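My current task is to audit a protein record that another person submitted. What it holds is a sequence and that sequence's fold in token form. Thanks in advance; the entry in question is below.
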Amino acid sequence: IDAYVEAINNIINTESYSDISSEIAFHSILCLINIMDIFPSSVNTIINKSNDKGSVIGALSNKIQNLEYIDVAEKSIKALERISSESAITILNNANLEAIMTMADFFELDTQILILKMMSNICMNISREDDFNKLEIIPMLNNYFEVRGFSDKHATMFGLMCTTFQFLWDFPLKFRDPYSNFIGVLENYKKLNQFGLMDKIYG
């Protein structure tokens, strides 16, 4: 598996200049997803794979920002979402989440759902207060409370957003004891509330 991941990393860290090179990147990322589906433990190899060209996660993040090859970008999101199900904090620390959230509106609903699943996995797996403080993407998550639509996909998106919100709102109590450190808990809730999360819920 290591040899396959090494080869895929070399390919996806090469910039796509033509339809042919983008097609190669597309199928390489698809192979990466298939490897993770068949061998879940391979995620550890993938997240630690890097060379002088860069890392797998960094390359996937860069592919998402290139909408000229939308199919490659969508597969990259699928790959990152799959990684997040096994190692969410690695995505938080190494993927360009702000750029991914900024680009979300350019994708189909199915792909936006994958982005929300990735964010939900990250929020669910945060276990340190330092990681909580890295969630600069909270203001962007707010936008999903304004999702309008009545399809099953819209319902899935809103359900994921509510689940993510629940994880976010539980964070201050997860890291600090309100009986012994009420001020610290209050400060963390103020951090969350400054992004308008409560206004979105009650709005």
